Amino acid sequence: VAATIAHVGVERMRPGDVYMMNDPYLGGTHVQDVRLVQPVFDEGAIVAYVATTGHWSDVGGPVAGSFNIEAQEIYAEGMRIPPILIYRDGELNRDVLEILLANMRVSSERRGDLKAQIAACRAGERRLLALIARYGLDTVHAAMEELQDYSERLFRAELAKVPDGVYEWEDWIDQD
Q1: What is the end-to-end Cα distance of the chain in Å, rounded?
Q2: Fewest CB within 10 A of the end CB: N or C in the chain?
Q3: If you write DSSP's letter for every residue of 67-96 in order, what string do you get?
Q4: pLDDT tens string 158-175
Q5: pTM to 2 decimals?
């Protein structure tokens, strides 16, 4: 989400917009993890963002499944997508989608992946706006902040249980 905001700028975002990205250099994990980010507007202002991550089974590249064990650079792993506008004002940018799908195997499945992620974003937006309507924006924002603080407290408590020391680990993957 932060990479999308930094790349696009909040001033360019409008209700119904959805951004897509998978670039591991901009906060992703690997090119198969496609993220959608949607700003949520209430009374004309962005009040939150909803986001989804879907592991797409293929995003192009020289090998099926986009997991090229011989890749020497990211370009051999599949399409790298910076934060791009895939929906503007709630309307699909068909030209961009067609470029993406033309470079991915089993494009009908990729279209389905996108539809599922869009549906999840829209559901998140509806539910968030329902909470705001019921409890008010300040209360919802306070609850979001408290959930983050609570998560941090739990994580720090678990870390505190680990004795001081130096820890090492080594592993191999199949092609090694």
Answers
A1: 34
A2: C
A3: --TT-SSGGGTS----SEEEEETTEE-HHH
A4: 999 999 999 999 987 766
A5: 0.88
